[in-house]
Amino acid sequence: MKNLLIFIGILLISIGSADAQSKRKRKKADKETAKWNYSIECQGEAAGGTYTLKVFSIVMDERLAGVQAQKNAVHAIIFQGVNAQGRKCKQKPALARSINLETEREDFFKEFFASVKRNDPNNFAKYVNIVDEVTDRQKLGKKKFRIGSLVTVNVGLLRKKLEKENIIKSLSSGF
Amino acid sequence: MKNQTNKLLLIVSLLFVSVSFSQAKKPTLMVVPADNWCYNNNYSESYDNQGVVKDIPSYRIALQRDTDLDLVITQINGMLSQRDFDAKNLKSQLDKIESAAAEEAMRSSKYGGAEVAESPIDALKKVAKADIILKLGWTVNDDGMEKAVTFILKAIDSYTGKQIAQASGTGAPDFSSPLPVLLEEAVASHIDAFLAELQTAFERWFEKGRECAVGIRVWDDWEYDLESEDFGDDELGFLIEEWMEDNTVGGAFTTMDAEATMMNFEQVRIPMTYEKKGRVRGLDARTWAKNLSKYLSGMGIENKLTTVGLGEVKLYLGSK
Fold it and tell me: So what's the ipTM on this one?
């Protein structure tokens, strides 16, 4: 009986510690996200409105590079657009039609880019897939890395989602 | 409880009604091949315009002979449909013209008027009444080893003739993919930027008003003209300009021609919506010009209002 109680105690402590660790990791990821320190290269596009992008993210923790690359890719599609890349890609305009959209709808985007589970419909992760988490790695400083990742973003679906949430206007809005 | 449910239902229906009617008229789109693409591929036909024979693009021949054209048009129509715009199908419109060929094509006064020759392109524009024509064309650059497609897509506002969106460029060279695949890639890579430009044009319409053209004509048998001062404190032409000033968005319009028997106004910015019986409705040039027609009728000037689609109106003064 005593052994059982000790076992349950150890189990609860380890679960609590794992949860706290996961929370810390999430907090760290969100902190990294807020910096939006990245550059994007278009690698190709498919007929269904899916872009393949190479994202170079500047991160403090290498382990966060994958999730950060996905967020950066979605962020670029919404707010920055993608530059033409030779004959591989044409210029892609940003989905946002207002330069102040990010601050105007801060609450929505805070939740949208929050590091929560993938199956949450309000999460950025639904619209992006990671193909190769680390394609390039460059150490910039003691705790600073430039990590290249290959991702695909379903821009058609992302646009529909933002239109549905009234974040951006659809082509037919007003008609 | 029942009363509350009824109230709730009433509020919901009112909201639905207000949403359904607070919409501007959606412009219609149609994709056609560009003129020079038709000529380069010999998809043209001779047309006798009152004794002058000239070559004009033949969309029917192009559709019959070029399967790639049908493919590209279908793909663009599909992408427009995904963005809630159902484009008119070129082939269906051409079929419509054939079935309506027997219909009277002239537009004249009830008491007379000259018959006007109509080219097949004019007939198509008349039947399709597309507000925006998307003109597409491509060339295949083949160096013997690799093929690359140069693609061009333009959106033309039918009534002003202005280009409101464009996308063009050359795709990546490829030595194995067949032409239809290269074309599909070309459309896919250009369409987002193209539709973004189109959306900018639509947003401009909502902000600054929809651009349309207005023509004023005077029937020969009318005893007055646009220089007559019998209708107010100024010449009729100036009175019309004053009305335009008061009834356009920000008083924006340009008087292109002002003569005794005709006036032409371009870049006339009309609002996208108007309110009637408490409802906001879509406004087109015809509904807007109806007010000018009423204004002139109020001065005792009998007039006839004719329209071309949503964006061009002509008022004939003197009789119906």
Answer: 0.73
